[in-house]
Amino acid sequence: GRCVVRNGCPTKTDAGGLEPLVPLSKIPTDAISVEGCLRLWCEVIGQQWRGALPEVYRRCGGKNLSGNARLEVRRCKEWFGSSDFFYICGLAGVDADAILKEFQRCMDDVTNYRGVKDAKT
């Protein structure tokens, strides 16, 4: 979907997109910090990263995942490189290409990758 700004809040215009619950113009500006927003969007990227790599981040080492869990892992992996990925990276203020390159490096050698702290971007 195409991204637009409505009432000061970024939204997606496709049929399945989310609309903001409260327009930014209705939120007191002292309640919003740029740093907090950037951390939030970085956490979204981190959640997808951890979801795509159960063998690194889950106690079970990614073994014996249910069908639903395997589907979620696949969706997380497919998210990297998608238009949503690039959109969220823009909101987070990070270099999407560098993160994608590091994610692909990790996927190429998951057994030797120790997580996001190991990233060399």
State the main characteristics.
single chain, 121 residues, mainly alpha, two-stranded antiparallel ribbon, 2 strands, 49% helix, elongated, disordered N terminus
First-to-last CA distance: 28 Å
- Helical content class: 40-55%
What is the rounded Rg? 16 Å
| Annotation field: number of helices | 5
- Could you tell me the mean pLDDT? 74
Concise summary:
The protein is mainly α and 121 residues long. Helices cover 49% and strands 7% of the residues. The longest helix is centred in the middle third of the chain and has 19 residues.
List the helices and strands and how they pair.
Elements (H helix, E strand, L loop, with lengths): L2 E4 L2 E4 L21 H19 L1 H4 L9 H13 L3 H10 L3 H13 L13
Helix pairs in contact: 1-3, 1-4
Describe this structure in words.
This protein has 121 residues and is mainly alpha-helical. It is 49% helix and 7% strand. It is built from five helices and two strands. The chain has helices at residues 34-52, 54-57, 67-79, 83-92, 96-108, and strands at 3-6, 9-12. A two-stranded antiparallel sheet has the order 1-2. The chain is elongated and about 45 Å long.
